[in-house]
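Need Sodium/hydrogen exchanger's 3D structure for a figure. Predict it.
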Amino acid sequence: MFSLLMKEKLYLNEVVFGTAFGIIIGPHAGNIFDPRSWNPSTGSQSITLEVMRIVLATGLFAIGIELPKNYMWKHAKSLSAMVIPTMAAGWLIVGGILEALFPNLTFVSCLAIAACLTPTDPIICAAIVGGKFAVKHVPVNLRRILLAESAANDGLAYPFLSISIYLTVESSKRVAFGKWFLVGWLYQVILGVVLGIVMGLLFSYLIQLSKRRGFIDRESYVAQYIAMSFFTIGIAHTIGSDDLLAAFAAGSAMSWDGHFNEQTEGEVFASVIDLVLNCACFIYIGAWLPFEDFNIPSLGIVPWKLLVLFISTAFLRRILPMMLLYKWIPEIGSWREALFCGHFGPMGVGAVFISTLALTELPTPHNPPQNQEELLALCIQPVVAFVVLGSIIIRSYYLHLFICTRNRATLRETSKQTFNFLQ
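Structure prediction for Sodium/hydrogen exchanger:
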C-alpha cells in the first residue's frame, strides 16, 4: 500500500521491503514463518535451493528477453572484459580476505565461500537499475551492460565453486582439475549455454510460425515467457548442466531478432510476475537468515569479523578490477562510471543459491566438525548470509545516493525530498 511512496521518496525497492517483512514474520521476531523448520533433517536446504533456482531462472530469462536484439553479440567484447577477469580477481580477493579473517579455514575452503560472493545478483540488479530513479539518472548503456553482466556472471559462478569443492573433497588434485574441466566447464557451462541457445532459437521459430498461421494471440506470448523459463531450467537441471546460464541463453536467443520484444511491448503481466516472485523470494530470505549463527566463536565466526568481511568485500571485490579494465569497455566512458560499476555489485539470491548448492556437495557436518570439509559446511552459510544481509541493506539505498553525487543539484533535490517526506 505504500510502495510507491517509499520508492519515489526514499528510493527503496521491494528487495528491502521483502527482506524486512521476512525478518519480522520469521522465527527471530514474530515466529509466523520459519522455512528452516519445514524439513529439519536437511535444514530445508532442498526447499531453499529450489525456491532460489526458480526466482533466479525467471529473472535471468527476463533479462535475456528484455535486452535489445543481438545485444550479446554486439557487446561480447565488453561483457568478456567485465565478467571473466572481474569475477576471477574478485574471487581471489575475497578468498584472501576470508583466509586472513578465518585462519581455521584453508585457502581452498575460503575460495569456496568466495565463489558464493563473487557473482553480482541479477534480481537485486534488475530491481535497482530498472527503477525510475536509475532510468532517469543512469545512462542506458550502463544499465544494460550491468544487467547483462549480472546475468552472465551468476551462471558462471558454477566453475569457481566447483573447483573449490573438488579440491576440498577429492584426494587428488589431478582428479579435481579433471572433473572441473570435464564437468564444471564442458558439461555444465558450455552444454548449458548451447542448450539454452538451441531451445531459445527453436522456440522463437515455433512461436513465429504459430503467429503467422494465426494459432497464437498476443496474451499467450506473455504466458509462454513464464513457461519457457521453467521448461528450460527443467531440461537443464535434469541433465545436470548449468540451468541458470541455460535460462539466460534461452532468453537472449528468443529475443535475438526482436520479434518477441515487439509482441510483448507494453505488457505488464511479466513485470507483475517478476515482482511477485521477487517479493516472495526476499520474504523467504528474511525469514531464512540464520541470525543465531552470526556468533559461533568455536568456529571463529564472530560479528566483528563478519562486519570487516562485508566492508572489505564491498570496497575491494570489484572496484579495483573495474578501474583497471574500464578503458577496454566502450560502454564505460569515464573513471566515475567505472567507479560506479565497480561499486555496483549487490549480493542476494545468487549467493544464497550457490551457498546452498555447495552444501549439497559437502558431507553432513558433525558438531564439532571432524575435518575441513565439515568445517566448511558449517561456516559457509552463516558467512554468506551476513554479507547478503549487509548487501541488501546498503546497496539498495546507497546506490541511489551514489548516483546523486554525479550531479550536485540532483543530490540536493533528493535530500530535500527525503527530508520533507520523513517530516
